Amino acid sequence: MTLSGTNTYVIAAPTADSVVIVDPGFPQGAAEHADAVAQVIGDRSVELILVTHHHHDHTGAVDTFHERFGAPVRAVAEQWCRQASVLLANEVISAAGTQIRVVATPGHTSDSVSFFLPDDDAAPHPGGTVLTGDTILGEGTTMLDYPDGTLDDYLASMKRLRDVEGAGRQVAVLPAHGPTLDSVARTAKDYSDHRMVRVDQLREMIADYPQIPTPVDWESVTVHDLSMQLYPKLPEVVRTPAKKTLAATLEYLLHNPKE
Q1: How far apart are the C-alpha atoms of 140 and 133, rounded to whole Å?
Q2: H or E stretch at 84
Q3: What is the mean pLDDT of residues 3-30?
Q4: pLDDT band at 7 (very low <50, low <70, confident <90, very high)
Q5: What residues contact 108, with CB distance under 8 A and at least 6 apart?
Q6: Do the bridges between strand 98-104 and strand 73-74 make them parallel or antiparallel, or are there none, so unpaired?
């Protein structure tokens, strides 16, 4: 479920004597992972630790990193903050010699945020970078952790990320899983288009169904049967996230039947 693992990022201007860490990672092997990050940081201090969302492969090592580096931890959910306030959408954080703009990107989860670095002009992506957590992945598509994550929120987040790029700027994606992508606007459009294809497929599939109650129950027989039709060869290990994403799509469709 985490592809090649969870990417932990270290942010700093080239001449800064401090850094910001994003997404400490899994609880398993947290101390060893903190050692590896410490080697990258060198003799610089850790000014701040940021979390993109609450899933355990991003927050499991929060306490280990907080204690190891003595830095405050900020997240949207207060549960994961340590000696710091919660993150606010559109807030600009000045730390490690650079500017980090917080972009609200719910949908994968309700507390998902991305971090836009407009001053990151390192080649080959001189237009800036955006750390997207699990909102955009380096490969494949993102699951919607329904009912916490919704398709309404997710489509709005894709629009918000497209707008980050703007005219004359190409912003690279630094995802929490998988490799870097060249353009956040292009990828966000592809993700939105993919979701709407699924909406259209579901619309056809339920045309002759009896009325489906809302809010949709992702554990219902209806959602299970639809998932088996839509993803007949899907390995069982990923059936649950597929059903949650399908339920989020179905909930969206039932509230937007003519779109």
Answers
A1: 14
A2: none
A3: 93
A4: very high
A5: 53, 133, 134, 135, 142, 143, 144, 145, 149, 154
A6: unpaired
Q: 44-78, pLDDT tens digit by residue?
A: 999 999 999 999 999 999 999 999 999 999 999 99
Residue 125: the pLDDT is 61
Nearest one of 9, 10, 12, 22 to 95, comparing CA atoms: 12
Instruction: Name residue 60's amino acid.
Output: G
Which residue stretches of the chain are H helix? 30-41, 56-59, 62-69, 151-165, 184-205, 221-230, 239-255
Query: In the numeric block, which tokens belong to residue 175?
Result: 């995802």
Assign residue 157 a region (left: φ > 0; alpha: ψ between -120 and 50; beta: otherwise). alpha
Round to the nearest angstrom and report the end-to-end CA distance of the chain. 31
Which pLDDT does position 2 carry in this prediction?
44
pLDDT in tens, 94-130: 999 999 999 999 999 999 999 999 988 765 666 899 9
Average pLDDT across the chain, whole number: 94
Q: Which two tokens stand for residue 207?
A: 């045309």
Peptide bond connecting 232 to the previous residue in cis, omega within 30 degrees of 0: no
Per-residue pLDDT, averaged over 7-21, amounts to 96
Q: Could you tell me which of 25, 18, 14, 89 has the C-alpha nearest to residue 51?
A: 25
Residue in the block written with tokens 């940081």:
41
Domains of the chain in start order, with CATH, are 1-87 (3.60.15.10)
Find, among 2, 8, 52, the residue nearest to 30 by Cα: 8
Between CA 50 and CA 82 the distance in angstroms is: 10
Q: Is 98 helix (H, G, I), strand (E, B) or coil?
A: strand
